[in-house]
Design brief:
130 residues; alpha+beta; GMP Synthetase, Chain A, domain 3; 2 domains
Length: 130
């Protein structure tokens, strides 16, 4: 199975959907933040391993606690994945913290701040000409 094949894309999508459902409703670990989402999933072509990028809406401590909670529940998550998806091999899931959403939010805030400052400068210079 090639990396970008239709089969691999479908497997990635199904694992992504089921993994998000498991994290949202099956895991009861208090370390896992309620605003945790699965950003993307990449299953290896041999179906043995899986990288799951997760995003946590919260501070640094909440992110680290969520990552620790998910890593401690990897075996349980894998068993639930095996029950919900009928695959030849159930992949071993590795969780990776994805900072792209937080980075995007911070960049948007910086751009808005710059635009606000720029608008304030234009208002000041227009008042000088009147």
């Amino acid at each position: 199975m090639r990396k970008n094949s239709v089969k691999n894309t479908r497997v990635n999508g199904e694992v992504h959907r089921v993994l998000a459902e498991i994290i949202r409703s099956e895991i009861k670990d208090p370390r896992i933040h309620p605003m945790t989402s699965v950003v993307t999933v990449e299953v290896a072509p041999d179906l043995k391993t899986c990288k799951a990028w997760i995003s946590v809406l919260g501070d640094e401590e909440a992110q680290q606690n969520t990552l620790a909670g998910l890593k401690s529940a990897e075996g349980y998550i894998r068993s639930l994945l095996a029950k919900k998806i009928n695959m030849r091999n159930t992949p071993e899931v590795k969780f990776i913290l994805d900072q792209s959403i937080a980075y995007g939010v911070s960049m948007t805030k910086k751009i808005d701040d710059i635009n606000r400052e720029d608008d304030a400068k234009h208002v000041e210079t227009n008042e000088d000409f009147e």
